[in-house]
Design goal:
Radius of gyration: 28 Å
Function: Plant lipoxygenase may be involved in a number of diverse aspects of plant physiology including growth and development, pest resistance, and senescence or responses to wounding.
Keywords: Cytoplasm, Dioxygenase, Fatty acid biosynthesis, Fatty acid metabolism, Iron, Lipid biosynthesis, Lipid metabolism, Metal-binding, Oxidoreductase, Oxylipin biosynthesis
Subcellular location: Cytoplasm
Largest sheet: 5 strands, antiparallel
Strand order of the largest sheet: 7-8-9-10-11
Number of strands: 11
GO molecular function: metal ion binding; oxidoreductase activity, acting on single donors with incorporation of molecular oxygen, incorporation of two atoms of oxygen
Distance between the termini: 81 Å
InterPro entries: LipOase, LipOase_C, LipOase_C_sf, LipOase_CS, LipOase_Fe_BS, LipOase_plant, Lipoxygenase_dom_3, PLAT/LH2_dom
CATH architecture of the largest domain: Roll
CATH class of the largest domain: Alpha Beta
């Protein structure tokens, strides 16, 4: 009887459809306490913040649940709720100003996690030990450059939001104008249009009093030769004398071979073949050129390929994983002889790699130019994320902390290290707030976008070694 009843009950209950979660809205009120008296920097930051809100970079909030989402294995999150009237209330003089935000959540969202901690954001500083903070002269120099960088990052976005075609640059003269005319003017905001925009007065004053702060610095090579960047010799010179001279290495195996898992990322063999480059080696075979240390490579295949599908799914981002082969000429200069462009394989019979060689006619000239542009894009990302942030800043932090904790300030080794460690902790803290943060300068300006820090982490795991980072070991390795 009990068994029969239990079975019947179970059958009856399984036939009842489960209730679908119901969406409902939750209203939040955020109260901000204003300072009675603001200094110049605080006033500027507030108005700049309001400007970013007007062009669509809003202040947003999210609710985190105490329950775990079974799909993401992370706490459930609400939608992003925009803080309303942030820019409209910029000039409100009240001691406290209230803003509202409206979340949409499911009935199965659970309880909001009141202990969920948000990262400290600017202008509230992260904690830095007093003896590691900037001195006044350093602070003033850094503040001017930081302001310049923020404006350079923000104002082209304003043009994009106002443009009917939503394009930053339509022609090369638009790029030239950033160096010669100034940002606000090149945004197309002259005369009456400029006056109608909700720009903070402080930005206009800076534009009127010191237009140089809104200009990009002209690279020295461009000041000497405006079209130097188009030529192969300058492209090759940048590999050893440009921003990132620490990636190029001697080619020892041809064709190059990937270290990535072939089951996931396709064949490890490169598409580069001897016939692609042999006619550019001054009569040498590829093996002879390798034996005489005449061939060099900048290889971004393995660092980019695992992220390409996600990068290329982002709006406005398109990239390849590149390999570039250089030949050392009798003049002692490098010459690019081939570029390989790779994408993740989309099918077993779908080619995912192509090789581009120097131009023979007008059509192939622009193909070659585009290939070089993709190399430069890869190079900028690796320089900033792997060589600059990771190898110069992030990897130094534990040594700085250890030195302060374990060594006396009078210790000879501490005395040697101190000039190299100085200011790094504060620079890193500021970088986490403005450069490498979500939607910060790095994510906005570099091809990897939101995957920038993942690439940096992957580079650390794959290639960072304490005993190979210094000179001469780095040069010997390469």
């Amino acid at each position: 009887m009990k068994g029969s009843s239990s079975s019947s009950s179970s059958s009856s209950s399984s036939s009842v459809p489960s209730e679908k979660p119901v969406k409902f809205k939750v209203r939040a009120v955020v109260t901000v306490r204003n300072k009675i008296k603001e200094d110049f920097k605080e006033t500027f930051v507030k108005h700049l913040d309001a400007l970013t809100d007007r062009i669509g970079r809003n202040v947003v909030l999210e609710l985190f649940s105490t329950e775990i989402d079974p799909k993401t294995k992370a706490p459930k999150k609400s939608n992003e709720a925009v803080l309303k009237d942030w820019s409209k209330k910029t000039n409100v003089k009240a001691e406290r100003v209230s803003y509202t935000a409206e979340f949409t959540v499911d009935s199965n969202f659970g309880e909001p996690d009141i202990t969920c901690e948000s990262r400290i954001e600017k202008p509230l500083p992260m904690y830095i030990p007093r003896d590691e903070r900037f001195e006044e002269s350093k602070k003033n120099t850094f503040s001017v450059k930081r302001l310049k960088g923020v404006l350079h990052n923000l104002l082209p976005g304003l043009k994009s939001s106002l443009s009917a075609h939503n394009q930053d640059f339509n022609e090369f003269s638009d790029v030239d104008g950033l160096y010669s005319v100034g940002l606000l003017i090149k945004l197309g905001l002259q005369d009456d249009v400029l006056k109608k925009l909700p720009l903070p007065k402080i930005v206009s004053k800076i534009q009127e009093s010191s237009q140089g702060i809104l200009k990009y610095d002209i690279p020295k090579i461009i000041s000497k030769d405006k079209f130097a960047w188009l030529r192969d010799d300058e492209f090759a010179r940048q590999a050893v004398a440009g921003v990132n001279p620490v990636t190029i290495e001697r080619l020892t195996v041809f064709p190059p071979v990937s270290k990535l898992d072939p089951e996931i990322y396709g064949p490890q063999e490169s598409a580069l073949k001897e016939e692609h480059i042999v006619h550019q080696l001054n009569g040498m075979t590829v093996q002879e050129a390798i034996d005489e240390n005449k061939l060099y490579i900048i290889d971004y295949h393995d660092i980019y390929l695992p992220f390409l599908e996600r990068i290329n799914a982002l709006d406005g981002r398109k990239s390849y994983a590149t390999r570039t082969i250089y030949f050392l000429t009798p003049l002692g200069t490098l010459k690019p002889v081939a570029i390989e462009l790779s994408l993740p394989p989309s099918g077993p019979n779908t080619p995912s790699k192509r090789v581009v060689t120097p131009a023979l006619d007008a059509t192939t000239n622009w193909t070659w130019m585009l290939a070089k542009a993709h190399v430069c894009s890869n190079d900028a990302g690796v320089h900033q994320l792997a060589h600059h942030w990771l190898r110069t800043h992030a990897s130094m932090e534990p040594f700085i902390l250890s030195a302060h904790r374990q060594l006396s300030a009078m210790h000879p080794i501490f005395k040697l290290l101190d000039p190299h460690m100085r200011y790094t902790l504060e620079i890193n803290a500021l970088a986490r707030q403005s450069l490498i943060n979500a939607d910060g300068v790095i994510e906005s300006c570099f091809t990897p976008g939101r995957y920038a820090m993942e690439i940096s982490s992957a580079a650390y795991k794959a290639s960072w070694r304490f005993d190979k980072e210094s000179l001469p070991q780095d040069l010997i390795r390469r």
